[in-house]
Specification:
Layout: H1 42-61, H2 93-105, H3 127-139, H4 150-166, E1 180-184, H5 187-206, E2 214-219, H6 224-232, E3 240-243, H7 255-267, E4 271-278, H8 290-297, E5 303-307, E6 332-336, H9 337-340, E7 348-352, H10 355-362, H11 393-429, E8 433-435, E9 443-448, H12 457-473, E10 481-485, E11 488-494, H13 502-530
Parallel strand pairs: 2-3, 2-4, 4-5, 5-6
Antiparallel strand pairs: 1-7, 6-7, 8-9, 9-11, 10-11
Length: 531
């Protein structure tokens, strides 16, 4: 593996590298009074900051030299590090630690920013997003109430409205329209917040003891975060309805099936509570029909939340607005700006039509220190989220929106969609392969067609498992993932890295074709011998 260039280590290469351990031979200073380190010295911050910026810049410039996925085994790292933290820092500890990042950490990570990373939905990065993170960390405020940091709170309110407008969300979900939003870490948190708000609103009507009667709904393609949130919120495990989807419907949740499930629960004396609809499922980017599902849920007073963690970013492009038709009827909506909108981890945006339901569920009663009595009619974000301590994420998103603009974000998303379409066309042009589900965004789900001479569907899944293993074993090749949908094992190629170019997509397809040819040739030999 090629490390970053040596430019960024000119100032640290002379340091003795002990992986954080105190050198064996030292002057005994146990009786000496050591000077207290200057922990926020501006000159030292500037010197070390330049080292870090150079390190990161060189890492990105040499990203293509790294295999996307490391060839390591569990437990590889602890054996290379000391058993305990040093009692005192070694000479030039920061420089030595950076050497260890280069020599020990980078060889053992999956390089999510690699242009050849196609396995997961992106964790998009940008220069402005990364520097926004640095600026946030440097300022280091905790905006749990308006009083705790007025500008941080109000910038977050501005940013969630800016972002909502950029995504073509209805005004009813924005502060400007009587709704409102917040920035969290992930959609997992947003789903739990929405579910708790819905639960408490319902229990206020029917009584707390009836929590055992509440039922929640999703499809079998919904992210597992929803089932986890339901357990945390106190929903009985056997009252989380996973409605089966089918290939014929491209694995979208069927309104007809949902209606039948809800009615069956009502007939059994249970209480429908919550529906989690998804725009862009993890396995195949299926899109649930929001408007039709809301029409099914409305007669039962069911809270509808839309999880658009990945595909929500695509809504900056007007040509994708139709995938959320009917969104005016939902109660809450969430998406991860860190997935595809250059906002760097972590950043989830959530919006509520009626924030009062959320505040009623998560608001705190003890206000001795946290609230300024003189500050009335303000947003205190501690009452909007699960945590009290929270990050100033709005600063990063504000910088991304200002420095790239909505048009720049559209260009970014569209470039990945075009590359995914090109990959899809290459798959379709090779008769040995098939695209399994409709490509909606920048994910292509494909597989080697069942080979009748090699067992047909009975061996198709194993054939495609082998293909994925061989593709990912190519050290300079792409890194892809798989899904099992409708009984089919399919390969997933998710285009989304900021550094990905057309040549990387073309090279990835060549590796897939090459490995497929090798596998099929071996099978021909085996079956010819058996035959």
């Amino acid at each position: 593996m090629a490390p970053p260039s040596q430019h960024c280590f000119n100032a640290i290469n002379g340091a003795t590298n002990n992986n954080g351990a105190v050198p064996a031979v030292m002057v005994d200073t146990s009786q000496q009074k050591l000077p207290c380190p200057t922990l926020l010295d501006a000159d030292e911050f500037r010197r070390q900051g330049h080292q870090v910026i150079d390190f990161i810049a060189d890492y990105y410039s040499r990203m293509g030299d790294y295999p996307v996925h490391p060839s390591v085994t569990p437990g590889f790292l602890p054996s290379q590090l000391p058993d305990a933290a040093p009692s005192r820092p070694e000479p030039d500890a920061f420089g030595s630690a950076l050497r260890d990042v280069r020599d020990l950490i980078l060889p053992g990570i999956t390089h999510w920013q690699s242009p050849r990373h196609f396995a997961h939905f992106p964790a998009s990065s940008s220069t402005v997003g990364a520097l926004g993170e640095a600026l946030t960390a440097g300022i280091n405020v905790i905006p749990f109430t308006w009083t705790a940091s007025p500008a941080a709170t109000e910038l977050e309110m501005v940013v969630v409205d800016w972002l909502g407008k950029a995504l073509h969300l209805p005004e009813s979900l924005l502060f400007a329209g009587g709704g409102g939003g917040a920035l969290l870490g992930t959609s997992c948190e947003a789903i739990l917040c929405a579910l708790v708000a819905a639960r408490d609103r319902k229990l206020a009507e029917i009584g707390g003891k009836k929590i055992v009667d509440l039922v929640v709904y999703c499809s079998d393609q919904t992210h597992f975060a929803f089932r986890k949130a339901a357990r945390i919120a106190g929903i009985q495990r056997d009252q989380c309805r996973e409605i089966r989807t089918c290939h014929a419907n491209m694995f979208a949740l069927s309104p007809t099936e949902l209606r039948a499930a809800m009615q069956a629960d009502v007939d059994a004396g249970l209480m429908p509570l919550f529906l989690c609809a998804t725009v862009g499922t993890t396995q195949t980017t299926a899109v649930d029909p929001i408007g039709e599902l809301c029409a099914v849920a409305a007669p039962h007073g069911v809270w509808v939340h839309v999880d658009a963690a990945y595909a929500g970013s695509a809504l900056v492009c007007p040509e994708f607005r139709h995938v959320i038709d009917g969104v005016e009827s939902v109660d809450s909506f969430s998406m991860n700006a860190h997935k595809w909108l250059l906002a760097n981890n972590d950043c989830c945006a959530m919006w509520f039509k009626k924030p009062c339901a959320l505040i009623a569920a998560l608001g705190t009663e003890q206000e001795y220190i946290l609230r300024d009595p003189a500050a009335s009619d303000v947003v205190d974000y501690k009452d909007w989220t699960l945590t009290l301590t929270r990050r100033f994420r709005a600063l990063k998103v504000w910088l991304v929106l200002r420095c790239y603009g909505v048009d720049g974000l559209r260009d970014h998303v569209r470039s990945h969609v075009r590359m995914a379409e090109a990959f899809e066309n290459m798959v379709k042009a090779d008769g040995r392969f098939e695209v399994v589900t409709d490509r909606r965004f920048a994910l292509v789900c494909f597989r080697l067609r069942p080979q009748e001479e090699f067992g047909g569907e009975k061996t198709a899944n194993e054939l495609n498992r082998s293909l994925l293993e061989e593709v990912n074993a190519v050290s300079s090749g792409p890194y892809m993932s798989s899904a099992n949908v409708g009984g089919m094992h399919v390969l997933r190629c998710a285009v989304g890295s900021t550094l990905t170019e057309e040549r990387h997509v073309e090279d990835a397809w060549k590796v897939v074709q090459d490995r497929a040819s090798a596998i099929l040739h071996r099978m021909e030999i085996v079956y010819s011998v058996l035959g």
